[in-house]
Amino acid sequence: MEDLERQRKKLMFQCHHRGTKELDLVLGPFADAHLATMSAEELSVLTAFLSEIDPDIYDWLSGREPLPARLQSEMTQRLVAFGRQRLLGEGA
User: Fold this and answer.
1) Which of 1, 22, 81, 82 has the fewest CB atoms below 10 angstroms from its CB?
2) What angle do CA 84, 18, 71 make, to 5 degrees?
3) 32: domain CATH number?
4) Is the alpha carbon torsion for 59, 65, 71, 77 positive or negative?
5) 5 exposed, middle or buried (CB, 10 Å; 0-12, 13-18, 19+)?
6) How far is it, in rounded angstroms, from Cα 54 to Cα 34?
């Protein structure tokens, strides 16, 4: 299996099985919609994002805390916007 495909499968699982239902309901659908077309760089950024603890991820997605500079990218901005829409109904 190609390395990127293996990484996508691993990330898909991680996005759907975070341990908190709220994050599963945001990250899972985001992965379903975008993972297949992400570049290797975007996959690396998502891997770094998912290595963070769930409470921090929830705070970033809900807007309680800003996304740290080390995780800033176009992809994470899309993810945060997607999360806010799912969690808070923003932009709906």
Assistant:
1) 1
2) 55
3) 1.10.150.250
4) positive
5) exposed
6) 21
d(C-alpha 36, C-alpha 3), whole Å: 13
Query: pLDDT per residue over 44-56, tens digit each?
Result: 999 999 999 999 9
- Per-residue burial over 9-34, b if 16 or more Cβ lie within 10 Å, else e, is eebbebbeebeeebbeebbbebbeeb
Residue 50 is part of which domain span? Answer: 3-88
Distance CA 88, CA 72 (A): 21
Q: DSSP letter at 73?
A: S
The number of folded domains in the chain is 1
Sequence-ordered strand ranges (E) for the chain: none
Q: What is the dihedral of CA 89, 87, 47, 54, to 10 degrees?
A: 160
Residue 54: count other Cβ atoms within 10 Å of its Cβ. Answer: 13
Contact criterion met (CB below 8 Å) for 31 and 91: no
